[in-house]
Amino acid sequence: MSNNLTCIAIDDDPLFLRKLETFVMDLPWLNLLDTYTNPVQGATAVISQKPDMVFVDMEMPYIDGSYLMDWIEPKLRSMEKKPIIVLITSLEKADIAEMPKVSGYINKYDMNSPDILGERLREILGSS
Fold first, then answer.
1. What span, in angstroms and rounded, lies between the C-alpha atoms of 78 and 25?
2. Residue 48: count of CB within 10 angstroms of its CB
3. How many domains does the chain have?
4. How many whole angstroms separate alpha carbon 36 and alpha carbon 18?
5. What is the model's pTM?
């Protein structure tokens, strides 16, 4: 991967965010701008920082990932370059066909190393 991509992660699980942060540090082509356990703060950061990629947890209290993306969609439409949305889930299989704003998903339990994260992201980027 020759181009560096910036990203933001939004997940209510601080331990998972720490794991993701550690794995991203091992991927030289990916730069994590920040992590958010509060989805509203995370959405605000997406709008203001304009990352290339956003990791969003599918299941969070009060605001799930799908609702969060619908909520910020009007702001995303005005961006010159829309971020790649990667859903984070603990579900075995996510039906992203019903979510046109989502480019792909990563299963939390399958992501056990930076290599697996990088491989899955390359698959998602190749299909975006």
1. 30
2. 9
3. 1
4. 11
5. 0.88
Return the exposure string of 76-107: e unless at least 16 CB atoms fall within 10 Å of the residue's CB, then b: beeeeeebbbbbbbeeeebebeebebbbbbbb
Domain that holds residue 74: 5-127
**Average of pLDDT values for 28-43?**
95
**Calpha distance 48→88 (Å, rounded):** 22
Which spans in 9-127 are helix H? 14-25, 39-49, 65-77, 114-127
The domain that contains 113 carries what CATH number? 3.40.50.2300
A 10 A CB-CB count for 61 gives: 7
pLDDT digits (tens, 9 = 90+) for 110-121: 899 999 999 999
Look at residue 2 in the predicted model and tell me its pLDDT: 47
**12: burial class by Cβ within 10 Å (0-12, 13-18, 19+)?**
middle
Q: pLDDT tier at 79 (50, 70, 90 boundaries)?
A: confident
Helix, strand, coil content of the chain in percent (nearest 5): 40, 20, 35
